[in-house]
Amino acid sequence: MKALVTGAAGFIGFHICEKLLGRGIDVVGVDDLNPYYDIRLKQARLARLGQGFSFHQLDIADHDALLKLGDGVEVIFHVAAQAGVRYSLENPFAYASANLTGHLSILELARQTSSVKHLIYASSSSVYGTGSTLPYSEHERADRPSSLYAATKRADELMSASYTHLFGLKQTGLRFFTVYGPWGRPDMAYFGFAEAIIAGRPITLYDEGALKRDFTYIDDIIAGIMGVFDHPPGDEQRHRVFNIGNHRAEYVRDLVALLETHLGREAITVSQPKPAADPVETCADISALNALCGYVPTTRLDEGIPRFVEWYQGWKRRPA
Fold first, then answer.
1. Residue 56 contacts residue 194 (beta carbons within 8 Å)
2. What CATH code would you report for 2-177+217-244?
3. Domain coordinates of the chain in residue numbers?
4. How far is CA 148 from CA 93, 126, 145, 277, in A?
5. Residues annotated as part of the active site
6. Is the entire prediction scored with pTM above 0.90?
7. Model pLDDT for residues 221-278, shown as the tens digit of each residue
């Protein structure tokens, strides 16, 4: 089997590639290696992917270049995106290109490539906005986005639904909740907190860390993605959308306390009011994904954070 993974140098994409290669699946990886965060981290991820992996540096919005890679591909894992809620305030057109045109380019690739049997794509818990009932259910309204990033991810879901209706594409969208772990993204809060604690810089806690997030360890995320891969859509429901999270909301201040313990340093904290785009709490209803493939996250925050810290300390000790 041959799989195409977009965002292959990214956090989740890299781990998907590792898992697929471990199963003996040939992987074609695509990433534009943009400088949104340290390219050296992206390159280090790619360097760990060995036999059976081929890499192509290109922008997924370049449909002509992307189309050349579709030959023989049976499944597409589309996790490339311009991430980050706050960055969308600074560079909104990056989100239009990567998340809207890019997603459309992937849909067209799937439509025009006869070998493709299943498109699995990344959505986000941010589609629920700030006023949804907890825990977030796939049956909840998702038409009140509180950020441009959220609006683009919901638009991706709607584009996918239209392509299934028009062309019968079999697709699965996954609404990721706060993913963390080794090889993570430096723009994520837990990673930035670790860097600031080590450097002795203050960290900002909104509402004194009283916000709650459904922190989900990367290994649990990958287990859920592989569960979807192993249980593709049938003819009766060709387009599905699932939450993929931990079903456990935890205080941000507890995350910081764990980082302090395992880094061996105390954080300098500054409290600010919660930004309007941030929900007070996120929590995933994962019953639908559990019913599909038996998805049950097993990694508690007090297990996952020490694993991240161990990786992080090794990464910081690497030769420059």
1. no
2. 3.40.50.720
3. 2-177+217-244, 189-213+247-285+298-316
4. 10, 10, 7, 10
5. 149
6. yes
7. 999 999 999 999 999 999 999 999 999 999 999 999 999 999 999 999 999 999 887 8
